């Protein structure tokens, strides 16, 4: 896991590395500038392009000065120039050192004291090194004017570390002024807010470059925010053992579907089968039985007749996934109530089962400890009340998982998993081609299958969300697909899991 740090913790990490590597702070800045330049030249390789670097007078500006020197002297970008925003008397020591160094190069450097002094910008690419991680209040005055001006030029902007004006954590004010960057090359780790939807106004794309901040130190800061990486899933994944049989991998019950929404049940149950549950039974309406048998003969059925609640032998099942296409009528409420009051092991609650929970608060107390709720944003707000922004949702999720001793999967681009130990895990797989109806049903099937195979609830969430996104990526990215269907993601799961297992066996 990569810890995601707040601005203050990032600063502590920098200071610790400087003291204990040891490395001088100006050399760390040099390392950061080189890492930026390496990524920049890979993306904007035309050295004949004119590049202007707008620098503040803190360390972000210092980075900008070092980047200008390295681009010019080492990478052959001869049309690089620098403009320094002297909006304050203050300048950091490393900024001053790098300004002296830059004066020994051919790079033209000019300074301005007010945004009004600027004429039209002729450079093709703007590098934003005005303010970085040191932002301590919303932009106003000259900085605000300057950032508006840069945005109005509609040039290609590449931000150093963070777009100026963008806060790395906390609530993002939709009215705040910030640089709109085509690419943000950020140091060491994505900032927490890069992973929330509101960041799309400032960041089109981002990538993180390693600058050698002490990993042991940042781990022991014990951040509640973590970024899930492939190696974490490889570590968690359990092999299919010799002499194992279907009983080894659990029996999952998928409670889903109505006559008109049988597709949700089929997608969910088939994903459960493909993720390796030893046995999968689907509790479906009579009307869906033929469809189920034709769609996937591996799935067994418990049939719901009329509005009655079927007999279920609770002891037979390792876990249950409840909700996709289930509907919210009285019979669905009765069935959910029967499950939650009779079954004591962790279950996965999704879709209509979440909507029923939202409308029947007394049922919450019956949800087995360790269960997993998988709401998308609207379902989340139905459960826990309206939220003005995603930062607020993350904080509510953290509070609710501890209060209810459950896990919450808040579905999104970077899906967020909250666990009862008070951690938030941001997933790093999945893509916009997966934004099609039924994709969440597949996720529920995957997570149910992992619970059946004795993954802990937290592991089932973290690995399930990762594998779901990975299967979508494995299909969409190499084949440049605009759209990926849930059924295809399901079919891809064994191969994607197998690829990770092969890496595990070969020691990565
Ligand atoms: N050795 C290291 O630590 C490394 C650091 N690195 C780099 O350093 C960057 C962080 O640098 P930093 O801490 O100097 O902060 P930075 O973003 O340049 O701005 C600070 C200045 O801005 C001011 N200010 C703040 N908000 C404001 C506002 N709204 N409107 C106006 N002014 C505002 C604030 O002034 P104050 O309010 O305190 O008077 C302060 O003087 C980081 O992003 C990375 O690029 C890398 O080189 C790796 C090694
Ligand atoms: N733009 C996107 N980028 C990445 N993943 C996405 C995107 N849109 C949707 N997804 C994923 O697809 C799934 C959609 O779930 P959900 O909204 O519950 O779908 P449904 O209810 O139609 O089954 C979630 O796992 C989500 O993370
Ligand atoms: K910046």
UniProtKB/TrEMBL annotation:
One of the GO BP terms on file: nicotinamide nucleotide metabolic process
UniProt binding sites for (6S)-NADPHX: 59-63, 132-138, 143, 161, 264, 325, 376, 441
Record field: transmembrane: none
Pfam families, alphabetized: Carb_kinase, YjeF_N
Assembly mode: Homotetramer.
Entry-linked HAMAP family: NADHX_dehydratase, NADHX_epimerase
Protein name: Bifunctional NAD(P)H-hydrate repair enzyme
Lineage of the organism: Bacteria, Pseudomonadati, Bacteroidota, Sphingobacteriia, Sphingobacteriales
